[in-house]
Amino acid sequence: MIVLVTLTSPKLEPALPWATEPLSSTVLDLLACRPPQRSFTPVSLPLADTDPYGLDLHLALYTSYELHYRGFAGVDPRWEWNPVLLAVRSQLEDVFLEALRRDVGDIEPDATAAAEMDALCVEPVDGTGPSYFLRDKGTWEQMQEYFVHRSLYHLKEGDPHAWAIPRLTGQAKASFVAIEYDEFGGGRGSQVHQQLFADLMEAAGLDSTYLGYIDHVSAESLASVNLMSMFGLHREFRGAAVGHFAATEITSSPGSRRLVEALTRMGAPDACVRFYAEHVEADAVHEQVVRTDVVGDLVATEPHVDRDVVFGIRAMDFIEGRLADHLMAYWTLGKSSLRRPLA
Ligand SMILES: [Fe+2]
Ligand SMILES: [Fe+2]
Fold first, then answer.
1. Measured between alpha carbons, how far is residue 220 from residues 4, 67, 197, 234, 261 in Å?
2. What are the sequence ranges of the domains in the chain?
């Protein structure tokens, strides 16, 4: 008898998160089994009274999406395209998307991505939010919390947006890939931004393991990455994915500058400063490329996508705003914004 053993690398495939009830436990219970290959009995989720931005839904959704990235140690990779799990994921997405559309609001008929990006470029003189707080009076412990929240995204930085590449053509595709090439280190593994963030985590005395803090972060942090995954994994949202990408690039440089100032004030290790300093420089260039050559070219060749790009920009702003509000609500009270303390 031949026994097939699937070898998994703990460095590559993360550990499963701890479930909360009842949605994430449903997903985790499924993943604990072998995926069915012939009979696909639908699983109905208990979605009544579900908070569309709550921890349980976003942990369940994050776990479902992660199968398209690195999967999980000990979980059969065939779950990625299993109809039972995809149907579960679809129910979760419907709840999230319905709330998102309601809260973002209707996109006006004359709204344009160009005007939306112009508005993003205007930085308020007396801005508020985590990067301002950290620059002016945040503590090193709060900065470490910020790293932990952001670790879910930055340790897979570039990946969620990369799903959009096959859905683009011409100059928009070429310029999108040019930006992603920088995110992925310009051909040098040590310079991949994911690696630069892992270096930052190590230098800050934190765990650089991929998804190492999934059981620490809030629902808002999970939702921030889920939004990118949802846009990227559905071709119908390719305009929104590009809008999210554009908003990320446009807002990165000034926010990164404030974090460099914060880290310098705190006397943080060089690797911590370096990650954000790199984004001050690179994203100032990326901003120009994404505005003109990615979004500009996309909406010129496909004008019907223009308002989808606006939706992606506004959705990003809304979801990132929720995370910022979460952090500030806890920090201004002198409390930890994490679900469990750092070891
Ligand atoms: Fe980056
Ligand atoms: Fe960038």
1. 40, 20, 20, 21, 25
2. 22-103, 110-331
